[in-house]
User: What shape does this take?
Amino acid sequence: MPELPEVETMVRGLRGVLPGRSLRRLEVRDPSLLQGCTATSLVRRMRGAKVAGVSRRGKWVVVELEDNRGLIVIQPRMTGGFWLIEPARPEHIRLAFHLDKPEATVWYCDARRLGKVSWYRDAEAAEIAFCRSQGPDALQIDREDLAERLARTSRGIKPTLMDQKVLAGIGNIYADETLHRTGLHPERPSSSLSLDEIARLHSAIGEVLARAIELEGSSFDAGYRTVLGLEGGFLAQNSVYGREHQPCPSCAGPIRKIRIAGLIGRPTYYCAVCQVIPTRISRPR
DNA sequence: CGGTTACCCTGGATGC
DNA sequence: TGCATCCAGGGTAACC
Assistant: This one.
């Protein structure tokens, strides 16, 4: 479910309630999502801990605690999310943060249980974990760094953009939207992009993600909602994702849905007219 | 090392 | 209505 804009929206929602509050009790309803710690040890460590702040790293949510209580890192993956209101599906509650003064509860729900929760003793330990699985954040990476990373691989530009070790935060929806805005075919070999194309791609990443954050992310079906249960508005005004057979908003060409190598089963949407591979560049096969 | 695939889970939509 | 099948916003381990 959540990509960078959805996770950023969650974090902003959590910032309204968590920082400065104490955890009267952390309730672990599903211990199977814990990584590297047991429910009893985590619950014991969190009793009475005060939240210093909430931040985002790629698609990960970071809850930092005061007084050397460490950091809780939550990876929502496909269906994880936070609720400040009573969750619509209580059977999906995996964690409950019971707060003090005044009493309140923040719920973490995850229908498919693909998400992960970890605890790190300090910021340095968390940083080591981040760097092991993630590249620079998609909103932080500079153009030169992006250019170097793209030059390193010949695989398709879309799988490269979705590789969290290349840059962190972009998933299936925003990869398609970013490539459409840049006029790039998703299977263009990453290393074949010109410096001008990389510059435009770099700008498009920032613009698409910023717009999606403004609109509080992308909602469809029973998936992602804000912490208040509201739908994100991005998919009401996007260009290609989920719009097979519709006309391209910039050239009116047909939007196609395909499956490409390196992304297993995930769908890719692109405009067949304004996102083409130049004939002098061979398409990977 | 670079790239690809199987698999982890469950719920909702669709088709028969 | 009931059941089977397919699909999904992510990520990792194992493999070639």
Observations:
- Helices of chain A lie at 4-15, 39-46, 123-133, 143-151, 157-162, 172-182, 195-214.
- Residues 188 and 283 of chain A are 7 Å apart (CA to CA).
- The radius of gyration of chain A is 20 Å.
- The longest strand of chain A covers residues 51-57.
